[in-house]
Amino acid sequence: MTTAFKLKRNLLTLFFAGLSVLSPTLALAQDDRKSTGPGPDTLVFVDGEKLIGHLLRSTGNSVMFHSDIVGDITVDWSKIKELNSTQKFAVVEKGVKLRTNESDAKIPQGSVTLQDGNLHVQTADAGTPLVLPLSQTADVIDQASFERFVLSRPAWYQNWKGTATLGIAVVNATQSSQSYTSAINFARDIPGESWMDPESRTSLMFTSAYGQLKQPSTPTLKTSIFHAQAERDRYFSPRAFLFAAANFDHDYSQGLDLQQTYSSGIGWSAIKSELEQLDLRAAIGYEDQKFFLATQNQHLFSGVFSEAYNRRFRNKITLHQDFSTTPAWSNLNAVSATGDLNLTVPVMKRLNFTFGVADTYLNNPSPGFRKNSFQFTSGMTYVQP
To answer: What is the pTM for the complete model shown?
Structure first.
């Protein structure tokens, strides 16, 4: 047996011997790390039933709790007898208004316990828990969300939510046709959480419909319609806001080359809840209309009145509807209006199917064109949550 072989054998023997000694120590250290982590939360109902899982948050009179057995549930505080959580939460009292970039000094943070109708908050710098009557508590927010939405302000590319839709139809026979529809609808709410008062909202929207129909010895028929909109809202109360908007419209079916509308006004959320919202807007604006027939071009001083309604149903089905009319005060004959209705049905995790109708009205189209332009669209939709 060579000396090199003996040396290798001895080194391997020492290595496995050391590993056998260290294994129990490593196992104990791993168990120790597991034991120091936050344990499960417990929820005890007034009828004595007990649920084990994790407290998600509480807003108003409702508590959101996750259990591996029953999933996510929402229950009223009145049905809860006891609650124990080792996780850290921020407890916001009623009357306290939160905004972004705000100091957390006035918001107690720590583990929470519910006993005898009082919420006990064990903060890190206090020996005894802070006792808050449940009737004075507005929201219980997990610390990660509190730090993300209250103590900092998101960058310009963060917090965008919305949908992108695409539809295609192709026919190749004696007649050849292609049609393409698309829609993009994105919005960025600051802070974007229901438990905080809104500060601002930026929305971007684009819809288009393009198609061609060809057949032998016949001129090609074309459809080309698009609508683009950008809007910035600034809230001065939870339901009222000032806004500025820019709209761009092109409709080959009405002889309209490009209509530009720039407006500014005031808006109000007439309905605002977790499931639905109805916004009403009124503004004054400047309108620049350019037609294929240049003699029709005109500059208008107009008003803009609009409404937008959004509704969420069960199984994440959503409905969106909006309508806008633009009467021109400098030329009462130059009236335009747009409206659309879209129903989105989930198919997969982020893929939905959307059915929609849209109508554009132009009271002064080019000669030979209809005043109304109606569209029905359907297609696959990608959702950015």
So the answer is: 0.72
